[in-house]
Amino acid sequence: MQNLRVAFFRFRILFFLLPIFLFSPNLLISKEVPKLSSHIIDETWTLTPGFEKEINDLLVQHEKETSNQVVVLLTSSLEDENLEEYSLRVAETWKLGQKGKDNGVLLFIAKDDRKLRIEVGYGLEGTLTDVLCHRIIEQEIKPSFKAGDFEEGIRNGVHKILDAIAGTYTIPPPKDYSYLGPFAFLGEMDGGGENIPITVRIFGSIFVFGILGIFTYLAANIPFFGWVLYFFLFPFWSLFPIALHGPDIGISIFLIYAIGIGLWKLYHLLTPHGRKRMKEKESSFGSSGGGSSSSSGGGWSSSSSGSSSFGGGGGSFGGGGSSGSW
């Protein structure tokens, strides 16, 4: 009787746990954390042995001098794992950094998923901040990764991580647009247009200015509603040129529009010849459609360097760092 009760109890536990395992396959199968055998581990066979030795020697020397443990892991895929959760699991499993100092850093790259993350231990979060990690990913690593040069991206990222820890890699101060006078606020909207490839800027300008040109022609030649349209186009003639060409060129284009079209409309408003010409334009606009209007167009690997005895020092992580994709 006692054995029957135990069997029944076990059956009830299995009955309640079965749906969890059925609908949560990640509880049954999760991506394995590789063995920590070196300061750089390549599971994809992407990196050359010479490059691995270069980075490994650099990080070994850095650890000897500072006790900070910085490790690079390049894997093929996350295998449906969450980027932040898996990278944190790797860092905690390896226990990067020294116990009590928590001075470990993991540069994790999932090559096929085009995702990466810098995981930072508690002890280095004050110097290797989330903001700096984000900048390192966006400015130092991703451009090379996008070009297919993983070695250069990793090299840049590792060096900048070490520089940030040393306090020599900082975010540059914001640009000073005070020289633009009353238009300084427009400079704050600069999104780095001068860094956009020239071909993109050329085709973007043709498209944007082509559309704005149609409305500008109407604004310049329609007698009354043209004034409304003239002022309505101000933000478009300022924001789009700034986005494509930066604040200096963008504001110049805006001033050419604002002053040029403004003087043109004042000429037609204040001079006899201009008023006569505007009346002719008004007649042509009014009679062109014959009382009706029509419009056309639409809406606008594993590493060969290092020894198997290498391991973490017992450091802790709390999720500090930054993630990115390319």
Distinct helical segment count: 11
> Residue-averaged pLDDT, rounded?
81
The H/E string reads HHEHEHEEHHHHHHHE
Largest sheet: 5 strands, mixed
The number of distinct β-strands equals: 5
Radius of gyration: 31 Å
Percent range for β-strand residues: 5-15%
Helical/strand content category: alpha/beta
The low-confidence parts are 289-307
| Portion in helices | 40-55%
N-C termini distance = 63 Å
Give me the side-by-side strand order of the main sheet.
1-2-3-4-5
Shape: elongated
How would you sum up this structure, described in words?
The protein is α/β, with parallel strands linked by helices and 326 residues long. 55% of the residues lie in helices and 10% in strands. The protein contains 11 helices and 5 strands. The chain has helices spanning 2-23, 25-28, 49-66, 83-94, 130-146, 150-166, 184-187, 198-221, 225-232, 234-270, 272-287; strands at 40-42, 69-75, 104-110, 115-121, 317-325. It has a 5-stranded mixed β-sheet with strand order 1-2-3-4-5, with helices on both faces. The model is unreliable at 289-307 (pLDDT under 50).
